[in-house]
Each structure stands twice: as C-alpha cells, then as structure tokens.
Amino acid sequence: MDYLSRLNDKQRQAAVYTEGPLLILAGAGSGKTSTMTCRIAYLIEEMGVSPYNILAVTFTNKAAKEMRDRVENLVGSDLNMWILTFHSACLRILRSHADVLGYGRDFAVYDPADQKTLVRNICKDLQIDTKKFSPAYFLGVISSCKEKRITPQQYPREYGTDYREQLIHKVYTAYELQLKKNNAMDFDDLLLNAVRVLEQDEAVLLKYQNRFRYIMVDEYQDTNQIQYTFVRMLAEEHRNICVVGDDDQCIYQWRGADIRNILEFEKDFPGAKVVKLEQNYRSTGNILEAAHSVIRHNAARKAKKLWTDAAGGSRITYFRAQDEREEAHYIASEIGRLTSGSYTLQEGRRDGRKYSDFAILYRTNAQSRTFEEALSRRDIPYRVLGGLRYYDRKEVKDLMCYMRLVQNRADDLALVRIVNEPKRGIGAKTLEKLQTLARVRGESLFDTLCDEAVVSSLSAKAGAGIRELTELIGSFAAEKENMRVSDIYDGLLVRSGYMKMLEDQNTIESESRIENLMEFKSVIYDYEEEDQNISLADFMERIALLADVDNHDAGENAVVLMTLHSAKGLEFPFVFMPGMEDGLFPGWRAFDRPDGLEEERRLCYVGITRAKERLWMTSAQTRTLYGKTDFTRESQFMREIDPKLLDGDGVYQQKRPQGGAFRDGAGSPAAARPFDQLKYARQRTKQNAAAMQQSAGDTFAAGDRVSHPKFGAGEVLSCDGKIIRVRFGDGEKKLAIGFAPLKKL
User: Fold this and answer.
1) How buried is residue 197: exposed, middle or buried, by Cβ count under 10 Å (0-12/13-18/19+)?
2) I need a labelling partner for 139 at 20 to 30 A (CA). Which of 170, 190, 424, 437 fits?
3) Mapping DSSP to helix (H, G, I), strand (E, B) and coil, where does residue 377 land?
4) How far apart are CA 106 and CA 184, in angstroms?
5) Buried (b) or exposed (e) across 468-483, using 16+ Cβ within 10 A?
6) 3-state class (DSSP) for residue 465
7) Could you give the CA distance from residue 98 to residue 109 in angstroms, rounded to a whole number?
8) Residue 193 CB partners (closer than 8 Å, separation 6+)
9) Looking at domain 698-744, which of 1.25.40, 2.60.40, 2.70.98, 2.30.30 is its CATH number?
10) Are 625 and 609 in contact (CB under 8 A)?
C-alpha cells in the first residue's frame, strides 16, 4: 500500500471509500488522476475486486491511456478491465448487442466525412440546394437532436413545420433510413444506441449492471444527458459509482455538457459521500487567490477554495496597453526579457527561462495574429496548439489565394486551391484534365478556363461556376490599381460566395472561420494606415514574407499560443492572458444570459489556474478587431480580482449608483452591453461590396462630381456605360463601373 502513502488526507479518504456513491470535487491541479488510479489499485489489491468488475470512463483516448498506464504500473498489466472513453465503451456494448436494435454486429461507424457525403447525396435526391442549406448545417441540427433524444418522427412536434424545418425533417428522416439501410452508425449513435439497447433489453442491462459493480467517471462536469443516462443506468444496481470533476471547470456547455449533472449528483444518488480535493500542487498562493476571487461570483457552483503549501509568490501583473499592437509588443518583450537571463529568482540569482515555459492564452483564435507577428519580429520561436498559425488557417489562405490571383492570374497553385471554394461543380478528375490541357497548350490554367470552347464542354453547373470565377478575377485584376486593398478584399470575400458559404454552414467552426476572416481586415487596415497608397502587390509581398515563418514542432523549445478552451488540463510556469476586455472576454454573447456569463467566468478560472509561477493579464484601451477599432472597457473579471493581488496598472473600478445596484453584480450597468464587433464587421463588409456593385446602376454624366475612397473628389469627364473617365486632383483615371467604389456627390 505504498501508493496510498503518497496521497494527502483528502485524496486517501477518496481512494479508500469504495462502497456507495462518491463525488470527488477535484479542483485544478489537485491530483485527481493519482487519486483515481490509487482508488482502482486499492479496489483490486486490498478489497479483492476483480478488474473484470471495474469500469472507468473518460473523454479522451489520451486520458484513458494515461489512467490505464498508471494503474498497470501499480497492479500489473494483465487486466481484464474497461478503462475507456465513453464512445469506446458504448461501441463494445453495441458490437455484442446491436441486434437488439435491428443492426448487424459488424455495423460500420461513419466518420464526419462519411456523414457529409451521405447528407450531400440525400440533398441531391431531395433536390435541396446545398448552397442555401449546407450538409454541415443539417448535420449540426441532427447531432443536436440526437443529443436531446429527438427522433425524426418527433422533430415536427418539437420545432414546427415551416419551410426550413420541413427540409430538416426530410433530411433527418432520410439520413436515419440510409444509416439503417447501410448498417451504419455515426458517433452520436454510439452513445444513443447503447442507451437504447440498455433500455429495450432488460437482460443486457442486468448483464452489465452485474459485471460493472464499481464505476468511475472522470471529468463528470463535461457529461451530456445521454452520457449521464448511460452511467446512471449501469450504476443503479450496486450504486458503487464514483464521479470525479470540478464544476468550476465546466467550459463546454456550448457543445452539450450539462453542469447540472455534477451539481445535482447528491440528489440523483441520495446518501452520496462528497470529498473535496482543495490542496493545489501547481500554482502559487496569489494565483489561487486571484482564481478564487473571480470564480466565487458564480452562483451555480459547489462551495470550495483551492489552497497550497507553496509561498504566495509574485502578484499578478496587469498591463493596460494603448492598443493590441502595444499589448503584443509588451508580451513579446516580457518573454524576451525573461528568457535572456535577466529574470531574478527568489534566491537572488539570475536564470534565463526556456521559451516552452511560456503560454499565451486567448479567448478567440482571431487574437493570435498580433502575437505571432510580435514574436516573429523578435525571432522568438512559437507554436500554435489547438489550431493553425493565423496565416496557415484554411479560410485565410483561401482568401489570400483569391488576392494572389487578382495580382497574378498565372498563379496556378492559387487557382487550384480556390477553384472549388466555394463549390462550383469542378471535380478532381475534371480539374486534372483541365490542368493537363493547360500544360499541353503551354498556358496558365486561368487562361485555359477563359477559353469558352473549353468551358462549354463542361457540365452546365461547372461551366457557370468557371465563368463567374474568371469574370470576377479578371474584373478585379483590371481595376486593382484603382482600388484600396481593403475594397478588393471585401469584394472578393462577398462576390465569390465565400462569406455566404460559411454563413450557410451555421456551425461553431464556420463562425470561428468568419471571425478569422474579419480579423484579416485588421491586418489590411494596419498596412493601409502605415501607407495609404499601398498596392495589392506590395501588401501580398509583405504578407508572404511574414507567413514564411516556420511553424515549430510540439517538442521544440517554443512559446505556446492557444485558446483558453484548448488549455484545459495543461500547465505552464508563465502564463499571459491578453484581451481582458468586456465584449472580448467575457464575450459579448455572454451578456445575453446569466449562465453564459458564468461559463465565461469558469473559462477565466481555467486560464488563471494554468499558471504555476507567474501570471500576466493584459488589455488594450482601443482594439481593432474584425476590421473595426473601438474603445474598450476593462473586463468584468479584472474588476472581480482583489486589487491587493495585482501589480502594474490599476483597474478602473466604477462606482455604483447611489441607492441602486447593477444587474450583473460586478459594477457595470447592464445597459452598457459590449458592442458586437463581429456582427458589425460582417455587415460593413457586405455593405462595402454591395456599394461597389450598386454603382453599376448609377447614371453618371459629364460634369458630375464624385468621390473615390483612394483618389478623393473628382469630376466626371465622360461615361460610356461600363467605363467612366474622372479627373481627380492627381490626374485623370479610367474606372470600371461596378468595381470602382464611386459615390455621386
């Protein structure tokens, strides 16, 4: 029992409590994995429980492997025990009992690509325009329905029968029929159908209830309703269920996690014992105090407070920058200073830290761009986890390829990338034939696609798509010297159909991609601010040089950049949390509902508790995000941190109005709702693109006064319907109506 001696009193208490329901509230960095593995070892070694009778489930293969390895190190590797993810456990049950639901036991499991193909074929059969309703949109709705256990038959009763809902009902019905016909299940089905088997066949339920006499569930705060039902049914017979989690770290409600599962565990299992693991082995005292001063404002939580034997350590450093560029410069400078050997340890000696000791944790992926640029300028290696480097993200590279084509129509690589983005009916085989033809002719692929004889040989859909694309690129190419880079970008993004494609998908992923595309406008505006006459060629050259910075491997000594959601479960000696502003963190959507603000606060708590030694929090007085510059208000969460724990700049504390209280309970009036920058940016992008097209409908005559965003005010000399000649202050220009953003004065 040497392994028990390594546990503290609370951990040991949880490890040896084996009979009856047990809730282990394991705070951040409190050693929950050690506690769980020691509990399994105690059951086997001291209680004589067969590994066959133990079930341990968690969420990721990595977590399951780590737990399995630790248990095998304690009790040996010859175990007939299930230490699996939820999906793996359900799949094992279904492989033996799928016939209960009319499936063969050799059923296929469809991955997301298979699902999209299936839905795309269904849409084709039902004559549904996938440009208006994408397969990703239908799959998102279907997944949500399965999680809520809403069948195709129940869907009309739950959501109505308007046109959109009728289409969803038809697709959902056909999708389920096709899955059954193909003897296939998707990932949602693995959970749902395992529960259905247990509900429909009492013998199967009794079999697994008798087998799994001891059940352990990790990260219980992240379970959804189906997972909750699954473990509760299995545990009903013996009630020896142990769940481990932290309600303060429930940050995945947007993808189905139900915090009520952990908050109401004692109600679901009367007589449950609760053990709180509050001793933290990760962070200093001041970091834990700051985390608690934020999370204590949440109403939906179990009362607990992390503590540590470690010293108080450094206070949290707060820096209020002028703008996001100064914020990134400050963070990069601090990393440079601390890795150069100028960091003074408590013992009085100096010691340069490794780059891998540092993490920059941000709320949205769009924020990473300024930090990547600031680190690159100082030759500081970095790597982006949970995502790609900003300029490597698909949507950004796609739009850069559109712009590259406008600048250079001989860029075959760029054309191949975007010829079917969005979908234009150009299949891989067709594209290959067109490339071969271009090589035989000795011309660029773009020139080949401009040949009407070639285009007319394609299908009607492909031909129409190619004509629209070549006309779009050719028109912008002809006018590129007369347009600002930002106008070219807006026009390409909207008129190519790329923006609409993402909006129609209506998924969390597509929203994130739109955020990144709006943030790319900030890049353009930065360059236009430095040089009002910057050409498209100059802009693309500068971006190309910047984007060539190598992306470092995970094992390299490099600063880590990642979102706060991706950081859960990790830890770093030094952590930076930028963007501490209302509207960004907490995000503007959080102010629509109380539980949204509480989840954002839990995310802040997760971020703070990633830091082991030092924590920096920063904000910007003005921030250009998604192409719009706004003055900001410091984050509500900064105002909740005890000022005694902060060093550096002061946090503005707004006084409460006399005789009243603010609704959000943190010193900020509910009426001062953060500005929805992303929504505004999207609207402005569409309006700008529309304004250019609307000019085609305007009538211009000689003598008219007009304005141009790049050339200023001018006088119309002549207009032939397509080309307009205008005299500006610096000379005469020929402009294309419908592409030149002219406004009649």
Assistant:
1) buried
2) 424
3) helix
4) 9
5) ebbebbebbbebbebb
6) helix
7) 12
8) 90, 94, 98, 101, 103, 185
9) 2.30.30
10) no
Contact present, 34 and 20 (Cβ < 8 Å): no
Euclidean distance between CA atoms 39 and 215, whole angstroms: 11
C-alpha 552, offset from chain centre: 21
**According to the 3-state scheme, what is the secondary structure of 606-630?**
HHHCCEEEEEEEEEECEEEECCEEE
Which whole-number Å values give the CA distances from 382 to 360, 388, 558, 571, 667, in the listed order? 10, 12, 4, 16, 37
Can you tell me the mean pLDDT for 239-259?
A: 87
More confident residue, 542 or 347: 542
End-to-end CA distance of the chain: 87
CA–CA distance, 464 with 399 (Å, rounded to integer): 21
Q: What is the mean pLDDT of residues 138-163?
A: 91
Sheet harboring 82-85: ordered strands across?
82-85, 54-58, 214-217, 241-245, 22-26, 273-277
For the beta carbon of residue 669, count every other beta carbon within 10 angstroms: 13
Q: Does domain 2-95+191-279 have CATH number 3.40.50.300?
A: yes
Could you list the active site residues? 32-33, 218-219, 249, 610
| Maximum distance among all Cα pairs of the chain, rounded to whole angstroms | 98
Mean pLDDT of the chain: 86
Whose tokens are 């013996």? That residue is 238
Q: Which of 431, 504, 489 is nearest to 462 (CA)?
A: 431
Separation between Cα atoms, residue 632 and residue 194, nearest integer Å: 49
| Among the listed residues 16, 23, 11, the one whose alpha carbon sits nearest the alpha carbon of residue 43 | 16
Comparing CA positions, the residue from 677, 722, 291 lying closest to residue 478 is 722
- The answer to pTM > 0.85 is no
Residue 83: count other Cβ atoms within 10 Å of its Cβ: 28
How do 723-728 and 712-719 pair as beta strands?
A: antiparallel
Rounded to whole angstroms, the Cα distance separating 38 from 11 reads: 9
| Pairing status of strand 712-719 against strand 705-708 | antiparallel
pLDDT for 481 equals 87
Cα–Cα nearest to 302, from 249, 254, 253: 249
Question: What pLDDT was estimated at residue 351?
Answer: 58
C-alpha to C-alpha distance for 58 and 37, rounded to whole angstroms: 13
Q: Which amino acid is at 430?
A: T
Q: What's the pLDDT at 554?
A: 43
CATH of 108-182, one of 1.25.10.10, 1.10.10.160, 3.40.640.10, 3.40.50.300: 1.10.10.160
Dist. CA 506–CA 123, nearest whole Å: 17
Q: Say which residue the tokens 């899955």 belong to.
A: 179
Structure-derived torsion over alpha carbons of residues 350, 356, 362, 366, reported in degrees to the nearest 10: 130
In the chain, what are the domain boundaries? 2-95+191-279, 108-182, 392-546, 698-744
Q: How many angstroms from the chain centroid is the CA of residue 612?
A: 25
Instruction: Check residues 345 and 474 and name the one with the higher pLDDT.
Output: 474
Q: How many C-beta neighbours within 10 Å does residue 705 have?
A: 12
H or E element in which residue 167 lies: helix 163-181
Asked if residue 36 has pLDDT above 70, the reply is yes
Least confident of 120-129, 329-338, 689-698: 689-698
Q: Percentage of residues in the chain with pLDDT exceeding 90?
A: 46
Cα angle for residues 145, 165, 179 (degrees, 5° grid)? 50
Task: Please name which of 577, 566, 621 lies closest in space to residue 316, comparing C-alpha atoms.
Answer: 577
**392-546 CATH fold:** PCRA; domain 4 (1.10.486)
Of 403, 495, 402, the C-alpha closest to 696 is 495
Question: Rounded CA gap, 315 and 206, in Å?
Answer: 55
